[in-house]
Amino acid sequence: MNRLTRTSIAALAAALIVPLSGCAALISPQQTLHRYAAGDGASVSVGDVDVRSLKVVGTEASEPAQVLYVAINNGDSPQTLSLTIAGEEFVQPLEAGEVYRQNPDDGAEEAIIEQLGQDSGTLIDVTVSVGSETVETHTQVIGPAHEAYADYVPGGAPIPTPAQRVYPEGEEPGGH
Questions:
Q1: Can you give 15-81 as a three-state secondary structure string?
Q2: ∠ CA 37-168-160 to the nearest 5 degrees?
Q3: CATH of the domain at 117
Q4: Residues 60-95: pLDDT tens digits?
Q5: Mean pLDDT lowest for which of 21-30, 74-83, 107-116, 124-133?
Q6: Same domain for 78 and 115?
Q7: What was the pLDDT predicted at 70?
Q8: Does one domain contain both 70 and 22?
Q9: Which pLDDT band, with edges at 50, 70 and 90, does 9 fall under?
Q10: What is the dihedral of CA 160, 166, 167, 173, to 10 degrees?
Q11: pTM score
Q12: 26 and 41 share a domain?
């Protein structure tokens, strides 16, 4: 083989390595540029206020439920946050720069919806307002089967033991 043929074959092989190796970095959009709530609950921003990890913890539509969230006032002035869920409004004043945790474990008074109107495992509509700005969103209704939130169910809820849980036919606890 002459030198020109060998050089051409080497150039062709180098040109095919990237597309054939599965490396799509040149043609695939960067997925980390898309913002999303990576954990339980919804996230929304209204004006200078961010609401994170917004979730409702309850069991059945006819039962009460508790609202949990974190609110961050990124502004230089006080703001008033309002959440409307299942017809009930929760208002929280926020000082400039304040991070507020609506969670009894952090000293907040429980935010209780007297009758949720939806079962756990569904999404519920939420209206979030700060001043004259309003955003409509939805969030999870988390039930006591999610053990991390069982203590937040108003009135308490038993955590199902493995014997009480329903497993697909032929599958047993701990099996895959």
A1: HHHHHHCCCCCCCCCCHHHCCCCCCCCEEEEECCEEEEEEEEEECCCCCCEEEEEEEEECCCCCEEE
A2: 65
A3: 2.60.40.1890
A4: 899 999 999 999 999 999 999 999 999 999 999 999
A5: 21-30
A6: yes
A7: 97
A8: no
A9: confident
A10: 30
A11: 0.70
A12: no
Distance CA 78, CA 96 (A): 5
Rounded Cα distance between 26 and 24, Å, is: 5
Bigger pLDDT: 164 vs 150: 150
Tokens linked to 94: 């926020």
Shared-domain flag, residues 25 and 42: no
Q: Residue 4 belongs to what H/E stretch?
A: helix 3-20
Query: 50 and 21, same structural domain?
Result: no
10 and 41 both lie in a single domain: no
> Which range of residues forms the domain containing residue 122?
37-152
User: How many domains does one find in the chain?
Assistant: 2
Residue with tokens 């509509």, as numbered in its chain:
125
What is the pLDDT, as a whole number, of residue 127?
98
**CA atoms of 92 and 112, how far apart (whole Å):** 14
pLDDT at position 50: 97
* Residue count (the chain): 176
